[in-house]
Design a protein that fits this description.
Helices cover 31% and strands 31% of the residues. By secondary structure, it is an alpha+beta fold. Strands 11, 12, 13, 14, 15 and 18 form a six-stranded mixed sheet that branches. A five-stranded mixed sheet has the order 2-3-9-4-5, covered by helices on one side. The chain folds into two domains: 121 residues, Ribosomal Protein S5, domain 2; 138 residues, lpxc deacetylase, domain 1. Bound molecules: zinc ion (ZN). The site of zinc ion (ZN) has 5 residues, from α1 and α5.
Length: 303
Amino acid sequence: MRQHTIRKPVGIEGVGLHSGKVARITLAPAPADAGIVFRVRSTGERIPARAESVVNSHYATTVGVNGTRIQTVEHLMAAVSGLGIDNLDIEVDGPEIPALDGSAKPFVALLAFAGRVQQSARIRPLTLPCPIRVGGGGRWIQIVPAERFRITYTLDNDHPAIGTQVLSWTPSERSFVEEFAPARTYGFLKDLGLMRKNGLARGGSLDNAIVLGNRGALNGLRYRDEFVRHKMLDLVGDLALLGRPIRAHVIARNGGHALNIELVLAVQRAVGLERRAALEVAAAAENARRREEFVTAPGLATI
Ligand SMILES: [Zn+2]
């Protein structure tokens, strides 16, 4: 499998879900092995789309460096990952990625318009050395080694419009585009006042989120189980911060951005440790081989 970038630059603008401020993003091709990199227009600061760049994961995933921040990167990251784009330059003029319709669908359309081009470098998927679990009680995520990437998600909520929603998915580009990218973010009307007081959901409206009142959704749903689909979309976006695809089965229950990022960091530690352990094993084997040569040489000399 080869790496991909986009064919030509494309841009879009809109209001940020949390900041309520208008921002413009411009996506441009990037060289092989560059990865996904955000570039802040006002400061020129470069922020790699990696877990190490995450500075806040409360309600949305925020990346930053040296005090410069870009909020709510997860739906754009999900679209980039879902369409198999490995290298991309994302210039951001504003504090937050535009919410657009609250899903990844408009980003998918934008990337499709940009076109995709294959690069010469290969994709190097990550292999998980051991199962990992983060969280506890009713909120946890577990990841286990597997042949193919797969997500199984359980969402429990006592709101009558949500209830218990369970879905298992082995992502393909087509199923991503048709069944997951259009799933929108959601919020509860009763939380809106407090969220806005805390600087959240200031750009939120019925145009970019499913709003849940006491009895049900105030706007129509795109899927009967749109809520769990959106949680899985968020997970895809946050897992893209690994920088490489992973061969593993992710099993989640009531996760969120904070747990997603905790998982990504734990996977990175495990993969790093495994790589270090493999190097140590190779070094030990090499030492043993040299020792054997050293030991056998005098023996041979006595023949
Ligand atoms: Zn989301």
